[in-house]
# Entry
Amino acid sequence: MKSAKAKQAPNVTGKKLGRVLLVEDDPVLAMMLEDAFLQAGASEVVICATMQATVKALDDARPDAIVLDVHLADRNDGWAIAEVVTMLGPTPPRIAFSTGSPQDIPPAIAEMGPIFEKPYDPQALVAELSAGRKRGLFSRFLG
# Structure
């Protein structure tokens, strides 16, 4: 697990990003996303390459946004973390999925956040999470 903190970069994309949990086992994509989030004003980006590291990071501190790689090196159900984070309180973190196989995400889980099919532009993913739009069943109630 790797963590980077921002040096007060301006957020030009909208909603404050805060702490971002980046669950990605591709080190090149993880570094590109980390850089994009920090430039967009994220206060901290925590990179986790395994499910075990992700669980520890969730235990350490609540994220404001999560990017979930669907197929991790140690598990093929990275999307399962989305089910766990919905239990983190009345306002769960914003979620985005990152995958080369969007069809592998169960439909009910896919409704929890936008799906970015690899390869994609990291700036587009950051812009989507920065916009603060919620998806899913309770989105119309939570704003």
